[in-house]
Design a protein that fits this description.
Elements (H helix, E strand, L loop, with lengths): L14 H19 L4 H35 L6 H12 L18
């Protein structure tokens, strides 16, 4: 008995690469430009750096405010702080002092 084998076409060898290449291109493009890709990670790092700078400024401002509050509390009032508060509350200054008026947003 004689069996006849079918000869494989040269196109059948291209089926696997034809499916694999578009899938590979899809994943590579999303690895670069996707939500968590390399471009997004650069943008996230820049955003993190900006927010760390803003956080450092807030911490600095808070420490300055805490220092001022500490000077006003616990019976350890400093004469300069009392003088400054009294002058601000009464809107007074000495004749030999120079008064600089600030807008409300410029005050600490």
């Amino acid at each position: 008995m004689h069996t006849k084998q079918k000869r494989r076409s040269w196109l059948s060898r291209l089926v696997v690469p034809a499916i694999t290449l578009p899938c590979l291109a899809y994943f590579v493009s999303h690895a670069q430009t996707g939500r968590y890709g390399t471009e997004a990670s650069v943008a996230l790092k820049e955003d993190l750096a900006r927010k760390q700078i803003a956080y450092a400024e807030l911490v600095e401002a808070r420490q300055a405010l805490e220092t001022r509050v500490r000077l006003l509390s616990d019976g350890t009032l400093e004469r300069d702080m009392i003088d400054e508060r009294a002058r601000r509350a009464l809107n007074l200054s000495n004749e030999d002092e120079v008064t600089i008026l600030l807008h409300d947003k410029d005050r600490n």
